[in-house]
Automatic annotation (TrEMBL):
SUPFAM superfamilies: lambda repressor-like DNA-binding domains. It comes from the Bacteria. It comes from Candidatus Eisenbergiella merdigallinarum. This is Helix-turn-helix transcriptional regulator. Gene3D superfamilies: lambda repressor-like DNA-binding domains. PROSITE patterns: HTH_CROC1. The keyword DNA-binding applies. SMART domains: HTH_XRE (SM00530). Pfam families: HTH_3. Residues 7-61 form the HTH cro/C1-type domain.
Amino acid sequence: MALITKIKEYREMAGYKQSELAEMVGARRETIVHLENGKYNPSLKLAMDIAKVFHVTVEELFEFVDDKK
């Protein structure tokens, strides 16, 4: 399964830098970078905290897709 995320899209629409978003949710900037690149699966709490910042559901930000064909 591959993680697809819309964090970068929402972050840029809101005008936040990666470091600003990281500070808002109590994470490191590097964590946000990895999340945006789909290289890190967030904890449920972190996913919910990020969704709350953008006033969207977790499902709107994250999607798991089957990468095996």
